[in-house]
Design brief:
Elements lengths: L21 H27 L1 E3 L6 E3 L5 H18 L7 H15 L2 H4 L11 E5 L7 E3 L4 E5 H4 L5 H16 L2 H23 L3 H36 L5 H12 L16 H15 L11
Parallel strand pairs: 3-5
Antiparallel strand pairs: 1-2, 4-5
């Protein structure tokens, strides 16, 4: 009786039907290669597209978008964003005050950054009609907004200056574009992980980790703009301690308690921001603030 030996490449433990069979191994190698290329393209696109901020002089990764494109992005989004908050307020006196305070802060940018070039962005300061949503925000290129719901809670012009100085800071530091570039990088890496893994598992894990990291960047941006607001306020003659009052208003508007852990939020909790603002003021002005600042 003749014994039949298993044929090489058959259906045994190391054959084509096994978990590491030639067909599956080849497919895995192809997926890994494609995923690596996608990841490399995303990384190169992110790290190679740097530009120098014309105001701060810092090198930034903003996805290769120049100031002219940035302005167009903001202008194109203005009407839609305003519409989501009820459009422009009908209160002419309040609208004028928002614009006046914003322009006053804008006029001292050269004092805060004496080596800056001409401001390349087209700033505007708009009071929105929404009297329910406590909010203020800025778009790339210069448009800054505050809702009536927040405006009506403010008690002093200095508090309004704190809000608008913070939003000017977002524009100057190009935070919107930085986050867009980071989001595009994350999207590319998630896609690469999905392709390489052959399913959504790896990509989903990377997305969760990446989004958590993006929230951290968001909190850092907010703290950076609080610091920016302090500089602009003092240069424009406003008392930066007014910003602490804004944090109290934001805390009250949120119900007085932080609804979730800070690491789950894109913004630091108001009470933590207030403490940080006090520390920034003490560090920047160890001998006390200048006299005569407007609250």
């Amino acid at each position: 009786m003749r014994l039949r030996l298993p044929q090489r490449g058959g259906g045994g433990l190391f054959g084509r039907r096994g978990p590491l069979g030639g067909g599956r191994l080849a497919a895995l190698k192809v997926r890994l290669a494609i995923g690596a290329v996608i990841a490399l393209v995303a990384l190169v696109g992110y790290f190679m597209n740097t530009s120098v901020n014309p105001i701060t002089g810092q090198s930034q990764r903003v996805g290769g978008i120049d100031e002219a494109q940035e302005i167009q992005m903001g202008l194109a989004s203005m009407q839609q964003m305003a519409g989501e908050f009820g459009g422009e307020s009908s209160n002419a006196q309040a609208r004028a005050l928002v614009d006046q305070v914003g322009r006053r802060l804008l006029s001292v940018v050269d004092d805060v950054y004496p080596k800056s070039e001409t401001i390349p962005w087209q700033f505007s300061f708009t009071l929105l009609a929404d009297d329910q949503t406590v909010n203020a925000f800025a778009l790339p290129g210069g448009p800054c907004f505050i809702t009536e719901a927040l405006f009506k809670r403010l008690e002093t012009e200095g508090q309004l200056a704190g809000v608008m100085g913070h939003e000017i800071g977002h524009v100057i530091h190009r935070h919107g574009l930085e986050r867009m570039a980071k989001g595009k990088l994350l999207q590319g890496l998630v896609g690469a992980a999905n392709v390489a893994g052959g399913d959504m598992g790896a990509g989903q894990i990377l997305a969760v980790v990446g989004n958590t990291k993006m929230l951290k960047y968001g909190r850092e941006d907010e703290l950076e703009c609080d610091e920016e607001g302090i500089k602009l306020m003092v240069a424009a003659g406003y008392d930066p301690r007014s910003m602490i009052g804004v944090m109290e208003i934001l805390k009250e508007a949120s119900g007085g308690a932080s609804p979730s852990p800070e690491w789950k939020s894109s913004h630091p909790h108001p009470e933590n921001r207030a403490q940080r603002i006090e520390e920034l003021i003490a560090t920047a002005y160890p001998n006390g603030l200048p006299q005569g600042l407007r609250r």
